Amino acid sequence: MPNLIRIALAGEGGQGVQAVAEILAEAAYHEGKQAIYIPNFGLEQRGGVSLAFVQVSDQRIGAPKFNKGDVVVALSGRAVERTHQYSGPDTMYVYDSSFHLKPEDLPAEARQLISISALEKSKELHPRVFNIIVMGVVLGLTEMLPYEAVKDALEKKLGYKFEKNPELRELNLRALEAGVEMAREALKGGEAVHV
Q: Disulfide: which of 9, 125, 158, 192 matches 52 by Cβ 3.0-4.6 Å?
């Protein structure tokens, strides 16, 4: 059985879930792993829920789609509604605490519900790094890739912006580290998902 991790990310259009998925898949590829990234913008395109599916494995990935994720990240109330179907008894289900969801809004079948405060942290750092904090959370929860690999993929994706404004590099790296730390705090007493 190949080591495989399946991740579903969902958020409002503009929250950057596609960028997170793309950078993670790129980092996996450069680490010599197999990776598949499938974007799903739904029918609305603008103003709708954006979903991204990522699979990473040390071996060939058999199918491009999956029914249940190992990690599901929902970054809005509507994203929670859209991702229930990808949650199962082996799923770590991640949601942002700022959306004040009721317990009945969350998938009861998930193995572990993890509340993060990425939105609050992004207000502290900069609203534009919200998705980078989320990427750090995914990295910290899964340990599927070395931190340096994700940092390099982030550099490849945003390097042209970093050249124009070097402070952005530092800001993005602080956001990535903040997300990893957030995941570690959330997992105290639990365990990460490994590839």
A: 9
- CA atoms of 65 and 52, how far apart (whole Å): 11
Give the dihedral sign, CA 78/83/88/94.
negative
d(CA 173, CA 100): 28
> At the fourth CATH level, which superfamily is domain 4-186?
Pyruvate-ferredoxin oxidoreductase, PFOR, domain III (3.40.920.10)
Residue 1 binned pLDDT confidence (cut-offs 50, 70, 90): very low
Burial of 115 (0-12, 13-18, 19+ CB in 10 A): middle
pLDDT digits (tens, 9 = 90+) for 88-144: 999 999 999 888 788 888 898 888 999 999 999 999 999 999 999 999 999 999 988
Structural domain boundaries of the chain? 4-186
